Amino acid sequence: MAEQTITGALLLGLLEGLTEFLPVSSTGHLLLAGHFLGFESTGKTFEVLIQLGAILAILSVYFTRLWQLLLAFPTDWRARRFVFAILLAFLPAAVIGVIAYSFIKTVLFETPLLICIVLILGGFVLMAVDRIKRPPRYTDVMDFPLALALKIGLIQCLAMIPGTSRSGATIAGALLLGTDKRSAAEFSFFLAMPTMAGAFAYDLYQNYNQLSANDVTVIAVGFVAAFITAVIVVRTLLDFVSRYGFALFAWWRIAVGTAGLIGLYFWP
């Protein structure tokens, strides 16, 4: 049983790192995969805490950029505005996440049928947004106005419904609000840092006293696997979406959601 648990953690960690920054819903993938694998974590904490691997992955890839922002912050108004834009975009999810935490973890996380439906609907939405052909108003994340950042942050709150995708919601929202594909994906990367770190810290605070030594080992395995695959995704995604857009991920969502519905019908 221990080997099966570690194996499940490894597989789910790889899946987390692969899907966290793609607009396909990493949480939806993890919950569906865990459902069919029979993988149960204490308080559904594993699915949130292994995001630390993805957080560290993006921090490692963007370390130089973040260091430059830190050095420029005291004197450069563009750097200050960008940092404030990220914090402003993070604020709605922080407030709603705390208020709705119990409902999200005990109801939404426990409803695989909802996850499948949302994956499919989100795929069609992403496909429609990807086909919009109009000149973007914003092509550099450093120039996103604060009002635009707040609107993207409000749209990000939709991702509290598993299957929606945090990155999918922020990217689609940014595109609808006039950004180009590359800057939409990059803003989603930066917004992921405080959002995922906040979710990690709050979930750990809520559940640390329930975790056993075995839970910690399983989470550590998932964390390492998530870190490795997330580094690869972050290093390649911007160039991919700049060239090919998001249609592939839209079809991916539809395929996974449909497969999940079939699986739930035959193997509930």
UniProtKB/TrEMBL annotation:
It is found in: Cell membrane. Its EC number is 3.6.1.27. Coiled coil: none annotated. It catalyses: di-trans,octa-cis-undecaprenyl diphosphate + H2O = di-trans,octa-cis-undecaprenyl phosphate + phosphate + H(+). It is a multi-pass membrane protein. One of its GO terms (molecular function) is undecaprenyl-diphosphatase activity. The chain crosses the membrane at residues 49-70, 82-104, 110-129, 187-205, 217-238, 244-267. It comes from the Bacteria. InterPro entries: UppP. Keywords: Antibiotic resistance, Cell membrane, Cell shape, Cell wall biogenesis/degradation, Hydrolase, Membrane, Peptidoglycan synthesis, Transmembrane, Transmembrane helix. Belongs to the UppP family. HAMAP family: Undec_diphosphatase. Catalyzes the dephosphorylation of undecaprenyl diphosphate (UPP). Confers resistance to bacitracin. Bacitracin is thought to be involved in the inhibition of peptidoglycan synthesis by sequestering undecaprenyl diphosphate, thereby reducing the pool of lipid carrier available. This is Undecaprenyl-diphosphatase. It comes from Hoeflea poritis.
